[in-house]
Amino acid sequence: MSQAGGTTPKAGRSDRIARQVVLPFRKSLEISLKSIQVRFFRSMITVASLVLAVAFLSFTLTGSDVAVGLLQSGEPQQRLALVDAGYDLPSLPSAAVSPADEAARLTTSPKERWIVILSLLVCTVGIVNAQLMAVTERFREIGTMKCLGALDRFILRLFLLEAGMQGLAGSLLGAVCGVLIGLLVGLVRFGWAAVTNVSLVAIGATLGLSVAVGAGLSLLGVVYPAAVAARMRPVEAMRAQE
After folding, report:
1. Coil, helix or strand for 104?
2. TM segments (predicted)?
């Protein structure tokens, strides 16, 4: 039977619940920022591991960018400097080998790639562990929000926002530090030519790729802990810290 106004009791109750639990994105962002501030030092530990992994990635890529810039300068002394530094290049350019093929030789070696991949994997495992600990610490908070009507997607959104902000900040800091250290090492090894011949486009691509990889790993590492928190029953969450 319909109530006055043509709304059934079930429909009216659903509308009221929707108005109670659906919060704007700005409010979710505010709650996430406050959560990071409360757990600032623990968040910094998670961010520090991401900074180191991304810095190593951007440092390796910057080293390749510096070497390619020196090779493409066409100066024989820079080519000899690369050979002396251990790069797989002949002392004199060969007409049978194109400049693009020679530049490909200056990319990271398989050993360096595996080291970078392993460091990123270790970083991801650390992020997962830190986020699982954060979920454990916030059992009562999660249970309270669910008792107040928070939906699973709202809890999931909070954790993804926190991981996204931490990942973006850590990746940006790590990428910038890695590029600066890579340029500094190139400056020490090859002189000012390492800085003057490097392509700004290549450096920009290195920064963008490093930030994207770091932020992506941060979000990937929080998916499972966020899903655990979102599926948690309010009663179980409240009872866990009694």
Report:
1. helix
2. 40-61, 114-135, 155-188, 200-224
